[in-house]
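Morning run. Coffee first, then this:
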Amino acid sequence: MAHPTQLLRTALPAAALAVMAASAGSAAELDGLAPHRAVYDITLDKAKSGAGVSDLSGRMVYELTGSSCEGFTQTMRFVTRMTSSDGDATVNDLRSSTFEDQAATTFKFSSSQYRDDQQTEATAGNAKRDGSDGAIKVEVTKPLKSTKTVGSKTLFPVQHSIAMLAAARAGQSIFAADLYDGSEKGEKVYATTAVIGGKFAPGKTPALPVVKNAERLDKLASWPVSLSYFDKNNDKSDSGPSYELAFLFFENGVSQRLFIDYGDFSIRGALRDLTFLDSPPCEKKP
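And here it is:
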């Protein structure tokens, strides 16, 4: 079994990309996304016997900037204090940043992991798609230089979120796509499957904690989503997902009630602060 810290490091970059927000009238609303900053309080949901986790708490700060004309930059910092079954406490600090152009032809990624203020890992690289629907060439610069080719149907994170939101709006109950987000030292490609529940009409969403600026969501429809991540390098056809994500997905891209299941333990993320950021309008070409 992987160490709990390793599981957290592996999953959270992809998990955070499901946490999107948008505001009316912004340049990015064409894609259902808009600049924002969201703060989540993280708590341990449950842990199986032998998981090695007795307690976990922390905070995740996610920020999306940019627009549908200039591309999107995502940054995240995820800090947790994890207590093992032996009573030893460890502070884990994951920091990541990605950039993706609007056409989904360019993707840049970097991340670093710290344990008790000591850096334990750093990853960086970029990926370029050959045209709008061609194969993707990945160049990893950290921790070791390497190159690989990823299938043309693979989606980048923002592209994946936009496609999943479009599927929900279209009434689809299943959305499946391969995802490349720079995880696992830039080597990992996930096969993802989302199960999209029935639509909640505006004002019919189940009761949620009061959060400043989140009152806009009362006028929007939403969908419960369960998103599973599978390791494409695993040849076993009956193998389960590497981890699963669940959240309430609003039609402007905002996610609430974050839940992540790693198999041996699970965590919850409660939205505590939401700030919408300004974005300049796209300039019209002459």
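DSSP finds two helices and 14 strands in the chain. Good start to the day.
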